[in-house]
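Human: Respectfully, please carefully check these tokens:
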Amino acid sequence: MALCTNTAPFPLSPLTPAEQRVLQQLRCGFSNKGIAAVLVVSPRTVESHISNLLAKTGCRNRTQLLLWALGER
């Protein structure tokens, strides 16, 4: 898998750089396993970042998080 670069960086200050990278790959449609492969981390690490993103954004699920990331909150 290749790193998705067709989206602009997601510069939100409350998000860590790692969370921003995970969110960018999520915006490209990758699964947790796919994101893990691209970012060279474990799928569990991706799950942790997604969980943190859900808590920080107030989203209830991955679909809401994706819509939030795409600016369709």
The radius of gyration is 11 Å.
